[in-house]
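Justification of computing resources. Each target in the renewal requires a structure prediction run like the one illustrated here; the chain below, 220 residues long, is used simply to show the kind of job we budget for.
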Amino acid sequence: MKATKSPIRAVATWLRRQPPKMKTFLAVVSGMAALLFLRMVVQDHNNIFIAAEAVHALGTCVLIYKLSKEKTCAGLSLKSQEPTAIFLAVIPCAVLSLFIHPTTSHHSFNRICWAFCVYLEAISVMPRLRVMQNIEIIEPFTAHYVFALGIARFLSCAHWFIQVFDTRGHLLIALGYGLWPCLVLLSEIVQTFILADFCYYYVKSLVGGQLVVRLPSGVV
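Resulting structure tokens:
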């Protein structure tokens, strides 16, 4: 007698068979639905930001536990994260921050540093994910940490969009004029989508009862 698949595994199998464009479309629709759900359910939208910081702190605690237990930072250290790729990310972010930065009344050096941090944070996880893709199998503690980063980034991005909607765009005006407000939101979106693919394979491994996350080539 053929075993009956659970609904979750059936959905996961269906998703795996979809072409990349359909997966992207479903991810966008799911993200928009999640934003609408958060806006309707959470009364004080500042709690979304608090939740994002709490999840990030939880992921950091997992990382600290990993370092204290295993006495290694393999996959997370600068040495293992392809320094060349890191510096190739730093230089464009530094150049971009010189031309596009906040137009507030703060000192220009502070505004440039602010922009540089925003741009670099958006892509800083890419070298780490590249290393994970190369080794393909991710041990639990590292996977938990990166998954927490993904959830925290989604909540932070959701908070930004909900705040922009609630203030009818006044939040963007408060950030300044020109391309800077748009690039702030774009940076949030980019970092969220970079981590979204990993989160998918994390949940897939979790549903499949696997203790480790397996990443196929081409995830990053």
